[in-house]
């Protein structure tokens, strides 16, 4: 019996249990990814030499209060768009950093945040945002979305400049609390 209670066996058992939790618990995965973000991994690729794309076709989003906004009506503003889902650990992991960025920029009238529910279960996303005390504006799609904004992978984040052209696109999670993002958004919003 004491053979099984050796320290190495207990540590192996705890390690195996931790791996199982990470495999089957989205919240645990999100916590792990968020921790990796804090040590410098998952930084957004801020390659400012990216060639601007053509203007993105119009997309319609609907807010939690039923108000509809057209992407085409936001020309003249920088638009930060993030597609996410409540079941997606990388999405959950990056949400605090997006909320932090939003808090720093919410009073800048030249920058608009559109956080898009990809769940197709808006009430679940609203509940998630409230539970986590995220104050970013939440939207759902009210039209088709062009592949330039989101492909088959989420999270997906796109930044449009004032002319409506894509100047940044990130598939996968990233730490948006990076000061370079804040500086970049403030610069292109002038």
UniProtKB/TrEMBL annotation:
The chain positions of domain Thioredoxin read: 50-190
Signal sequence span per UniProt? none
**SUPFAM superfamilies noted in UniProt:** Thioredoxin-like
Stored InterPro entries: Redoxin (IPR013740), Thioredoxin-like_sf (IPR036249), Thioredoxin_domain (IPR013766), Thioredoxin_ResA/DsbE_sf (IPR050553)
One GO MF term on file is: oxidoreductase activity
Q: Name one Pfam family in it.
A: Redoxin
Protein's UniProt name? TlpA family protein disulfide reductase
Q: Name its species.
A: Mucilaginibacter mali
- Provide the taxonomic classification: Bacteria, Pseudomonadati, Bacteroidota, Sphingobacteriia, Sphingobacteriales
